[in-house]
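Question (not urgent): is this output format expected?
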Amino acid sequence: MTSSARVPRSLVWSGAAVFVVAVGLVLLMVVRPSAASPSGSGAPGGVPAESSADVGFARDMSVHHQQAVEMSFVVRDRTEDEDVRRLAYDIINTQANQRGMMLGWLESWDRPKSSDRPPMEWMGHPVTPSDGSLMPGMATDTQLEALRAARGRDAEVRFLRLMTVHHRAGADMARAAAGSAGTDEIRDLAAGMARAQESEISLMADMLEARGARP
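Got this back:
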């Protein structure tokens, strides 16, 4: 190569400097916490602390939701009533989707999906599981066995009663999280859960009345 075609050394160093700066900006954008990250979460980078309401709610409500989905699958196969089957279908889809969101957030926060700590500790009143009921509102193993053995109207009434109690406790938990969580994700989801479950409680009261039963 002739000297006339050779690139000046100053331009080479200038290009290298621009490249380094560009790489640095990209890395900064990737590593730096998002402006939307929650503040006051008790951990670096806006990640909710292990003891936070965000982590506790996501973990506990995932378990709570899982039982609601399980009971809905049970009753769906034990009745031909379209109203009950439609309610069960809605609960399965809604709560399975919400559970997936909460488990996904726990994953993104690098928090374990289960804990040896007592359930509801994040609310200030930890509970002791009894007969398979891990939290307030959850059905016991005995109640679940009775639901599985029931058919027709008996299964419908048992399901509606169990789910009413389940929803009441779930709505209480959701309201607590909506008021104390540090992330927009949990606050918004919890507030929506409380409204939806209160609406379904009213619906189930009407469905029980139509079957000559009380909640």
